[in-house]
Amino acid sequence: MKFLNKFLAIAAVFTLVSCGGAKQEESTEEDTAASEEMEMEKEESAKPMAMAAISSASGSTLSGEANFTDNGDGTVAFELSVSGAAPGTHAIHLHANGDCSAPDATSAGGHWNPADVDHGKRGESQMFHAGDIDNLVVGEDSTGSLSMSVKGWSVGGADSTNVVGKAIIIHASADDFTSQPSGAAGPRVGCGVVKEKM
């Protein structure tokens, strides 16, 4: 009987130690995962970022937000989301002046075009403005989004690449990527000034 009690006591201690070890191992794995996640967030927050709050222009009901994250390799991750827009296809450009004060957003000036070249389709045409982006498709629910990596942009870099201080413009119609100087995209229905996030 004494032997049995001793055996059970030893078994109980072994079980507790084993469970404790398993819990410690599990805890260490969780700590490592949390640490890696924090490191990734830290790296992400260290990247230069900019944002534009987009307001309506030309009597539209559009609003939205554009975010720019400098990847540090000559590209910028661009993310755009809009709501209250007319369903259909809308041209998106960066314009030279960070000024949305005019009711029709003409205060933003023409396309950002530091190289003084013809308008075209980014990634397809031989020539295109630094501010040429793409077309945004808005669904029947009046919302739309666009994500892309843009080569040749920066957040806070050289004047010829820096998106900060420009205006993002959403047009009423699609960009045909051919008509000069701006793709026959129609009135400006949304405008936002790109500002660096501190």
From TrEMBL:
Domain Superoxide dismutase copper/zinc binding: 63-194
GO BP annotations, alphabetical order: superoxide metabolic process
Domain of life: Bacteria
TM region(s), chain numbering: none
Acidic residues bias: start-end ranges: 27-42
GO MF annotation list: copper ion binding
Designated name of the protein: Superoxide dismutase family protein
Species the sequence originates in: Fulvivirga lutea
